[in-house]
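As a representative case, the lines below give one protein's residues and fold tokens.
***
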Amino acid sequence: MVFDWQAASSRAAATIPSVLTLALSTLRSTSRLPDLADPTQSPGLSKPAGPAFAPGLYIVATPIGNLRDITLRALDLLQAADAIACEDTRVTGKLTHAYGIKAKLLRYDDHSGERARPEILERLAAGQIVALVSDAGTPLISDPGYRLVKMAVEAGHAVTALPGASALLTALATAGLPTDRFLFAGFPGRRSGERLSDLKDLARIDATLVFYEAPSRIAGSLADMAEALGDRPAAVGRELTKFYEEMRRGSLAGLAAHYEQAGPPKGELVIIVGPPLDEAPDEQAIDALLLDALSHLSVRDAAEAVSAATGSSKREVYNRALALSK
């Protein structure tokens, strides 16, 4: 008898899919394996199979641009929540819709916080699970929430953080500047005088500085940083985790000149400024800084700004500024 390899191969090929289908069906019924053909079904998208979440306030980080940058634990919690406090229900609604989350959305922002806090505290007192999210990233980091957390703690409610996406950490990790010590300084002042005053206080901090900034103010803020902090290495992160993500690196003065010429960029911005330079600037560098500062500051203010940025003697810098102003 001659064995027909071609016929046998055809029968085997026809049998394999049915065997795999049977195996997957068995695994799903015994181990709750998600249906890989359905992208909405993956571990963590249904209420947790383990111990239920205890009542309390949960601070939940959400994506800063890419919808997939959310943790499985965050999805479990949002599925289990009785209510989600959020800055903008339309923004958070996109997230909850994408993942089939049905919890009630409560507006909680700087304007509605005073009215919303009593209802949230009542829900916590009734033993509910309430999640606090921001429009993007980790709540309370330049976002509303501090007063709510403080009042929840004072009332004896459990407060738990579920870590995740953060624009400042994402930018810090990719800027190429020192990360061993850093200070997050939030948004700089809206006006140049206010910014310069605040930046002078930060000039001698031996750490990398991180700021958030609006596109319309980026050029002015970078120029003020160069004046108050010295022309340090810096980077500007734009649209992080999104399709048009960009990390532009250079000196503060160089970056300021770029955005002054190019105009306001689109998207969310993070500024990373390197720590003070180890080497003291020479007289020529100090003169250049003074001449730039004197173009829009008084002699005294220009000397203070340059002294703070370079660590040079206030008296010497003031005398030099006085000479250059004549």
About this structure: Strands lie at 56-60, 83-86, 104-107, 129-132, 159-162, 182-184, 208-213, 233-238, 246-251, 269-273. Residues 124 and 229 are 46 Å apart (CA to CA). The domain at 56-165 is CATH 3.40.1010.10 (Cobalt-precorrin-4 Transmethylase; domain 1). Confidence is low (pLDDT under 50) at residues 1-44.
